[in-house]
Amino acid sequence: MSMLRLTFLLVCATMLQACAWLQLGGAQEESVDASLVNNEHAVQLLLAGRNLDPIEGTWEHDHDSFELVIARNEFDIADEFDYVGVITRSDQPRWQPGDVKLLLQKTDVEGEYLGVWTTYNKSKRRMRFVISDHDLIRASFTGQDGNPYYVRIRRVGERVAHRL
Known about the structure:
- By secondary structure, the chain is α+β, with helices and mostly antiparallel strands.
- The chain has one domain (31-155): Lipocalin, CATH 2.40.128.
- The protein has helices at 3-22, 40-47, and strands spanning 57-61, 66-72, 83-90, 100-106, 112-118, 124-132, 136-142, 148-155.
- It is globular and about 45 Å long.
- The N and C termini lie far apart (51 Å).
- Mean pLDDT is 74; it is low at 3-28 and 159-164.
């Protein structure tokens, strides 16, 4: 096989893999059984009995408009992601317990994840998430209007010392 043909095949394979990642989420809304996340006891059972990764636990949006649990992806949702962030409480009518708000994939850098954040209008935003000081997850993206938007979620029950 010629070197040019081999290079072409490698480029095509890489592009297909990237396209598959970018198409994740589409228009389909994902959710898990709401009984798993609708109260504190259920959430504790979901996380109990194993060593938790630093990203796992209960988190709340910086504006306290919703709470979610981040747990290992054992829900058969988007298999390429290691963690799923599921709404447990929301003041926003568009979000119900069990709705998937966040998908995360580990990277080679400790405390850094690639993921998909579902916005208030249910559009999907791919971005890099960074956990800092074990109690704050930060990310940002540029909106369709060209303005920067920030995502900040903090661990429930812990004070956030640093902000974006």
